[in-house]
C-alpha cells in the first residue's frame, strides 16, 4: 500500500486511506472476539494452532493469487487447486516415502508449477485470452493429465520430512505457519521494496501509464502467474504433508477460497490496489469461520449460508469505504 | 462498408464455420451421428445448457458474471418437484412461485453489485454459497415428483422435433429480440462497453445491471424447470455444473468478458459446439480423461483464437 | 477288479476336481442366503439374443479411486468374456447428472444390446432408464439404482446395510452407552443420505448412545481431518466413538484422533489408507466393504440377461466385514492384517477381483 501511494502520489488516498487500510483487520479482530465469546473451545491453544495449521496452505496459495489479481486486467488464477493436487500425486509417486528423493522431486514440481504459470501468463499476455478462461482451461487440462498419470488411483507415500513440514511443530509453533509467515514477509518485501513490486502496482493501476513509463507489462503479468504457480506448488506440498494421503482432489475448492480471501483482503479486480497482508487477514477470516461453524455445531446448510454472506459482507465493507 | 460489417461479425462467422465443420466432419466419421435419433438426442441435450447460457450471455455482456446460476438451477428444480409432489393442478402457481424466487435472487445479486461496488464474481460467488445452503435446508436428498403432464416439457415431441427445441428456441429468440430490437438491448451494450459514457449519456446503468441479473436468474429458473421435467425429481446438486459450464459457450461464441462485445448470436453455436463435441467423443469412445483435456484445450484455443483477431 | 479300481480312481479324481472347483466358486450373494424375499428371480427369455453382444456402460464418474476400480472391474470382466462381448462402450458423465442422461442416450444410439447404468443420482436418470426399459433394451443398474423399478436388475451392496452394520458395531463397542460423532459423506449425495438413514435406524435402538454432532466431510481425507480436529477441540474426551461412512474421511479423521491421543472406536471401508492407518496406530476399528467387484458382477449378470438366464431383481454382492475387536453381532470375516497392505498405495480398494494387469499402476 505504501508503495502504491508513494508511486501514484494520489490524492484519493490521503486521509481516508488510513482508516480504509485497516478495515479488514478490524473485521478480523471483531470476528476473533466474537468467536471467543460464543465458543469457549475457540480460544484453546490447540484449537488456535489447528486453525493456523489449516490456514497455512490456503494462505500460501492466496499469496500467489494476490500477485495475479494485483496485476489487474481481471486477472485471477483458477488453476491453483489443480496444480496442488498434481504436486501431491507427483511427490507421492516419485519419492515413495523416501526423504532423500524429496528435494529432486520437489524441484521438478516447482518447475511444473512455473511452467503452468508461464503458460497461463503467455496465454493472457500474448494471446490476450481472458484470465478466467485461460486458467479455467488450464485447470481442466491439468486435471485430465493428472488422471491419465495416476490412472485415477494415486500411489506412493509422502516422505517423513514432508509430513513434518505439513503437521510438525517447531517449539510451540507449527512449521507450516512459520513457512507461511516467511513467505508473507518475502511477498511484502517484493511488493513494497523492489522495483518489480512498484512496477506491478503501476501495471495493475493503469496499464497505459505503465506502458508509457517503459515497463514491459507483459513480462510483469507473466511473472505474477508464475508466482501463483509456484505458491500453488508449495501449498500443495504443505497440504499433502498435512493429510498424508495422495488423494485425487488435494486442495479442492482452494481456487475460489483463495480468490475470496484476496478480495476480502482489499485487493480489487481492477488491480493495482491492495496487498498481501490483507489477503492473509482474509484467509484467517475464512478459516476462523470454518472452525467456528464446526465448534458451534451448526449444520451444513448454515455453513454455506454464513460463508456466502461473510464473503459478500467483508468485500463490500472494503469497497464501500474506498468508493465513498 | 460491406467489408467493415463483415469484419465486425467475423468472430460470429467463425463460430458458425467451426460448428458446420464439426457437424459435417462428425457425420462423415461416425455413421451413428447423422441419424434422426441421435440428432434428436443432441437437440434435447443442448436445451438446458443453451437456456442457462442465454442468461449468462446477458451477465457477461455488461462486463459481469453470474456464478450463482448453478445453485439457482438446483433450487428451482428442487422447489418445483418438492411442492408439486405429482399434483397437476398446482403446476401453474408453482412455476410462478419458483420464477418469482429466482427473480428475487437475481434482483439481490444486481442490487448488491450496484450498491456495494463489489465485483460481480465475488457477489455471485457468495450468493451461490447462500442459495446452495438454502437448497440443502429445503432438502438434502433428491425429492418430490412431477405430474405426467409436466413431463412434456422435456420429453414431449411436436411432429418429429423434441419439444425442448421449441422451449430453447423461444428463450433464444426472446433473448436476441431483447438484445437487438429494444432500447434495453442497446443499454446493455452501452453499459458493458463503457459504463461511464453510458451513464453520462443518460442510461440508468445501475437499473440495467439489476435487470440483467434478474434475466440471468430467470433463465436459470427456466433451466431448473426443464431439469425438473427431465429428471422427474429435484436434485440438490443438479445445477452445480452450470456454474462454470454456462460460461464456456458464451466465451466460445465471442462475447468478451470485459463486456459490450458479442452476443447471443455467437453463444448459440457455442452451445451446439460443446454439445456436439461431447456427443461425438462419446460416439467415438474417447477415454474420459482425454475428454477433459480436449475440453480444456478447446476453451483456451477458441478464446485464444478470437482475442488475437482484435 | 483292476477295471473297477481304475474306474473308482478316475471317478474320485473327477469328484475331487468338482469339489475343488465348487470350493473355488464365488461366494453366494447374501440376498440368496439371508433374505429370501429379496430374491425375485426375473424371467429373461425375452432378452435372449445370440452373441456377440454390444454392451454400453454409462458411468456416473471416475473422479475418485473407488469409481476407477469399479470401472476397471467392468472392463476387466468384459475382457474375460471376449467371446461373448464384441464391444463394450464406456461413457463417463463427470458427476453431471444431465450429461449422463445424454451419455445414456448416446449409448442407445450406438445400438447397444444392454446398458449397464451407474446412475449419478437415482432421480435424474430415472426417466431415461424408464424410456429405455420400455423400448425393450435391458438395463442393469450398478452401485446406484434409479428411483422407479423400471430396470432389469440392480447389482449393488446396500448402503443402508452399510450404515447399520457400522453403527451396530460402534454401539456394541460402547456397550450401548456413550457419545459419538458422525462424519457422513457429502450433503445431497444419495449414498451418504442412505448410510445415515441406516445408521439412525440402529441408533434408535440404543437410547443411551448420544450423537454429539454430525458434520458432512465431502468424502475428503483433508476435510475429515480438519473437521475431526475441530470436534476434538469442542468435545475433547467426551468423544467415545466416531462413525465415518467411508474410509476416505475415516483415514483423515483417524490421524486427527491419533494426534490428539484419543484412541476411540472408528468405522470405515476397505480403503487401504484407512486399513493401514488403523493397523499402524492400533485403533479399535471396523470396516465393511462397499466392494468395487460389483462392477464385475454387473457384467456377469448382464451376460445372463442376454443369454436368457433368470437373474434376481436385486443382486447383493458379497462384502467383507473386518474388525479389530469383534462384538456380539459384528464379527470379522478375516484378520485385519491380512487385508491391510502398507506396501500398496493408500488409494487402493482391497476387496477387488482385478487381475494384475488391470490394477491401476
Order of strands side by side in the largest beta sheet of chain C? Answer: 3-2-4-5-6-13
Mind describing the biggest β-sheet of chain C? 6 strands, parallel
The termini of chain C sit apart by: 58 Å
- Total separate domains of chain C: 2
Number of strands of chain A: 2
CATH architecture of chain A: Orthogonal Bundle
Structural class estimated from helices and strands of chain A: mainly alpha
Which structural category do the helix and sheet elements of chain C fall into? alpha/beta
DSSP helical segment count of chain A = 15
Tally of domains of chain A: 1
Oligomer: heterotrimer
In helices, the fraction of residues of chain A equals over 70%
List the uncertain runs of chain A: 1-15
Write a concise keyword list for the protein shown above.
heterotrimer; B: 310 residues; mainly alpha; ABC transporter involved in vitamin B12 uptake, BtuC; globular; C: alpha/beta; Rossmann fold; six-stranded parallel sheet; 14 strands; 17% strand
Describe this structure as you would to a colleague.
The complex is a heterotrimer of chains A (324), B (310) and C (361). Chain A has 324 residues and is mainly alpha-helical. Chain A has 15 helices and 2 strands. A two-stranded antiparallel sheet of chain A has the order 1-2. Chain B has a single domain (46-281, 288-309), classed as ABC transporter involved in vitamin B12 uptake, BtuC. Chain B is 75% helix and 1% strand. In chain B, strands 1-2 form a two-stranded antiparallel sheet. In chain B, helix 2 packs parallel to helix 14 (264-284). The mean pLDDT of chain B is 88. Chain C is α/β, with parallel strands linked by helices. Chain C folds into 2 domains: 37-157 and 292-318, Response regulator (Rossmann fold), CATH 3.40.50.2300; 159-288 and 322-338, 3-Layer(aba) Sandwich (Rossmann fold), CATH 3.40.50. Chain C has 11 helices and 14 strands. In chain C, strand 7 (178-183), helix 7 and strand 8 form a beta-alpha-beta unit. In chain C, helix 3 (65-80) runs parallel beside helix 11 (294-306), helix 6 (159-173) packs parallel to helix 7 and helix 9 packs parallel to helix 10 (272-281). Chains in contact: A-B, A-C, B-C. Chains B and C meet through helix 3, helix 11, helix 14 and helix 15 of B and strand 3, helix 4 and helix 5 of C.
Amino acid at each position: 500500500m505504501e508503495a502504491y501511494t508513494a508511486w501514484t502520489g494520489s490524492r484519493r488516498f490521503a486521509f481516508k486511506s488510513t482508516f480504509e487500510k485497516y478495515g479488514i483487520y478490524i473485521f478480523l479482530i471483531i470476528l476473533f472476539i466474537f468467536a471467543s465469546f460464543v465458543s469457549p473451545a475457540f480460544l484453546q491453544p490447540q484449537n488456535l494452532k489447528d486453525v493456523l495449521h489449516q490456514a497455512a496452505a490456503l494462505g500460501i496459495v492466496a499469496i500467489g493469487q494476490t500477485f495475479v489479481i494485483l496485476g489487474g486486467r481481471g486477472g485471477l488464477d483458477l488453476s491453483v487447486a489443480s496444480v496442488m493436487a498434481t504436486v501431491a500425486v507427483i511427490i507421492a509417486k516419485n519419492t515413495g516415502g523416501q526423504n532423500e528423493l524429496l528435494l529432486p522431486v520437489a524441484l521438478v514440481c516447482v518447475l511444473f508449477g512455473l511452467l503452468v504459470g508461464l503458460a497461463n501468463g503467455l496465454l493472457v499476455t500474448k494471446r490476450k485470452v481472458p484470465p478466467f478462461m485461460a486458467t479455467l482451461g488450464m485447470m481442466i487440462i491439468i486435471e485430465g493429465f493428472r488422471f491419465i498419470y495416476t490412472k485415477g488411483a494415486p500411489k506412493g507415500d509422502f516422505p517423513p520430512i514432508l509430513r513434518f513440514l505439513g503437521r510438525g511443530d517447531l517449539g510451540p509453533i507449527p512449521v507450516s505457519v512459520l513457512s507461511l509467515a516467511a513467505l508473507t514477509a518475502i511477498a511484502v518485501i517484493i511488493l513494497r521494496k523492489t522495483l518489480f513490486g512498484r512496477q506491478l502496482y503501476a501495471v495493475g493501476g493503469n496499464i497505459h501509464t505503465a506502458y508509457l513509463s517503459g515497463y514491459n507489462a507483459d513480462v510483469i503479468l507473466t511473472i505474477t502467474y508464475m508466482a501463483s504457480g509456484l505458491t500453488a506448488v508449495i501449498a500443495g506440498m504443505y497440504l499433502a504433508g498435512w493429510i498424508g494421503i495422495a488423494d485425487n482432489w488435494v486442495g479442492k475448492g482452494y481456487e475460489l477460497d483463495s480468490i475470496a480471501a484476496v478480495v476480502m483482503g482489499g485487493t480489487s479486480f481492477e488491480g493495482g490496489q491492495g496487498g498481501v497482508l490483507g489477503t492473509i487477514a482474509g484467509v484467517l477470516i475464512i478459516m476462523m469461520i470454518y472452525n467456528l461453524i464446526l465448534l458451534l455445531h451448526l449444520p451444513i446448510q448454515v455453513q454455506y449460508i454464513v460463508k456466502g454472506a461473510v464473503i459478500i459482507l467483508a468485500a463490500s465493507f472494503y469497497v464501500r469505504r474506498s468508493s465513498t | 462498408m460491406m467489408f467493415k460489417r463483415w469484419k465486425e461479425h467475423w468472430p460470429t462467422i467463425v463460430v458458425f464455420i467451426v460448428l458446420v465443420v464439426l457437424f459435417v466432419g462428425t457425420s462423415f466419421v461416425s455413421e451413428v451421428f447423422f441419424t434422426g435419433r441421435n440428432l434428436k438426442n443432441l437437440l434435447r441435450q443442448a436445451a438446458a445448457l443453451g437456456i442457462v447460457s442465454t442468461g449468462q450471455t446477458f451477465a457477461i455482456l455488461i462486463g459481469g458474471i453470474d456464478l450463482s446460476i448453478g445453485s439457482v438451477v438446483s433450487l428451482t428444480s428442487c422447489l418445483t418437484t418438492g411442492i408439486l409432489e405429482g399434483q397437476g393442478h398446482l403446476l401453474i402457481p408453482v412455476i410462478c412461485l419458483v420464477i418469482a424466487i429466482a427473480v428475487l435472487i437475481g434482483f439481490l445479486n444486481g442490487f448488491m453489485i450496484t450498491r456495494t461496488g463489489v465485483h460481480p464474481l465475488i457477489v455471485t460467488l457468495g450468493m451461490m454459497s447462500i442459495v446452495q445452503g438454502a437448497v440443502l435446508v429445503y432438502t438434502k436428498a433428491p425429492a418430490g415428483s412431477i405430474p405426467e403432464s409436466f413431463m412434456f416439457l422435456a420429453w414431449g415431441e411436436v411432429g418429429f422435433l423434441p419439444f425442448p427445441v421449441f422451449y430453447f428456441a423461444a428463450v433464444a429468440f426472446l433473448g436476441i429480440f431483447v438484445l437487438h430490437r429494444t432500447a434495453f438491448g442497446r443499454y446493455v451494450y452501452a453499459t458493458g462497453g463503457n459504463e461511464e459514457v453510458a451513464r453520462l449519456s443518460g442510461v440508468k446503468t445501475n437499473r440495467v445491471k439489476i435487470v440483467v441479473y434478474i434475466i440471468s436468474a430467470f433463465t436459470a429458473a427456466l433451466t431448473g424447470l426443464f431439469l425438473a421435467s427431465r429428471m422427474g425429481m429435484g436434485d440438490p446438486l443438479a445445477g452445480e455444473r452450470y456454474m462454470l459450464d454456462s460460461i464456456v459457450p458464451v466465451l466460445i461464441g465471442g462475447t468478451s468478458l470485459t463486456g459490450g462485445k458479442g452476443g447471443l448470436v455467437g453463444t448459440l453455436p457455442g452451445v451446439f459446439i460443446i454439445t456436439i463435441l461431447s456427443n461425438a467423443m462419446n460416439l467415438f469412445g474417447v477415454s474420459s480423461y482425454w475428454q477433459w483435456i480436449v475440453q480444456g484445450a478447446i476453451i483456451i484455443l477458441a478464446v485464444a483464437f478470437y482475442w488475437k483477431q482484435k | 477288479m483292476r477295471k473297477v479300481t481304475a474306474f473308482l480312481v478316475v471317478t474320485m479324481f473327477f469328484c475331487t476336481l468338482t469339489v475343488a472347483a465348487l470350493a473355488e466358486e464365488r461366494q453366494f450373494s447374501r440376498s440368496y442366503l439371508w433374505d429370501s424375499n429379496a430374491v425375485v428371480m426375473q424371467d429373461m427369455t425375452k432378452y435372449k439374443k445370440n452373441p456377440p453382444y454390444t454392451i454400453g456402460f454409462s458411468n456416473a464418474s471416475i473422479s475418485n479411486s473407488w469409481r476407477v476400480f469399479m470401472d476397471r472391474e467392468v472392463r476387466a470382466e468384459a475382457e474375460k468374456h471376449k467371446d461373448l462381448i464384441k464391444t463394450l462402450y464406456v461413457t463417463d458423465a463427470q458427476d453431471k447428472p444431465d450429461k449422463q442422461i445424454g451419455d445414456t442416450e448416446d449409448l442407445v444410439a450406438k445400438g447397444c444390446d444392454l446398458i449397464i447404468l451407474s446412475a449419478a443420482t437415482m432421480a435424474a436418470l430415472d426417466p431415461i432408464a424408464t424410456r429405455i426399459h420400455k423400448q425393450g433394451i435391458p438395463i442393469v443398474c450398478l452401485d446406484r439404482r434409479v428411483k422407479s423399478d423400471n430396470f432389469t436388475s440392480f447389482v449393488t451392496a446396500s448402503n443402508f446395510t452399510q450404515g447399520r452394520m457400522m453403527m451396530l458395531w460402534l454401539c456394541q463397542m460402547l456397550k450401548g452407552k456413550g457419545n459419538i460423532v458422525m462424519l457422513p459423506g457429502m450433503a445431497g449425495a444419495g449414498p451418504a443420505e442412505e448410510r445415515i438413514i441406516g445408521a439412525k435406524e440402529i441408533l434408535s435402538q440404543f437410547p443411551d448412545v448420544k450423537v454429539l454432532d454430525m458434520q458432512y466431510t465431502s468424502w475428503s481425507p483433508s476435510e475429515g481431518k480438519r473437521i475431526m480436529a475441530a470436534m476434538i477441540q469442542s468435545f475433547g474426551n467426551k468423544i467415545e466413538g466416531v462413525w465415518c461412512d467411508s474410509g476416505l474421511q475415516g483415514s483423515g479423521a483417524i490421524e486427527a484422533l491419533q494426534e490428539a491421543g484419543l484412541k476411540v472406536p472408528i468405522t470405515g471401508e476397505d480403503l487401504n489408507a484407512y486399513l493401514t492407518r488403523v493397523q499402524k496406530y492400533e485403533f479399535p476399528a471396523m470396516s465393511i466393504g462397499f466392494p468395487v467387484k460389483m462392477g464385475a458382477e454387473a457384467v456377469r449378470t448382464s451376460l445372463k440377461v442376454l443369454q436368457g438366464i433368470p437373474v434376481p431383481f436385486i443382486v447383493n454382492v458379497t462384502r467383507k466385514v473386518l474388525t479389530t475387536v469383534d462384538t456380539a453381532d459384528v464379527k470379522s470375516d478375516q484378520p485385519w492384517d491380512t487385508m491391510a497392505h502398507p506396501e500398496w498405495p493408500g488409494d487402493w480398494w482391497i476387496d477387488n477381483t482385478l487381475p494384475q494387469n488391470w490394477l491401476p499402476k
